User: Fold this.
Amino acid sequence: MNPDEKPNKQTYEQWHKDPKNWKFGLFYYNKRDKRIFPPKRTKFLGWTVNFANPTSIIALIAIAAGIIIIALLLENYLN
Assistant:
């Protein structure tokens, strides 16, 4: 597959089912997959982070920081 070419649905499914792309069975790690939030191993449970994609890690940190900031603002507001 050409690196500039977007993978098709079948390729995404193959990557998702490949146990080599799941570290400890929990963490999705696939350098070829450019998606930031691929589906979890059990798809109906939502999405996970592709830890091989640096953008995914930055997005995860930003979301966590946003939740912490909102929690701190709410705590200050309520007190």
About this structure: The chain is about 45% helix and 5% strand.
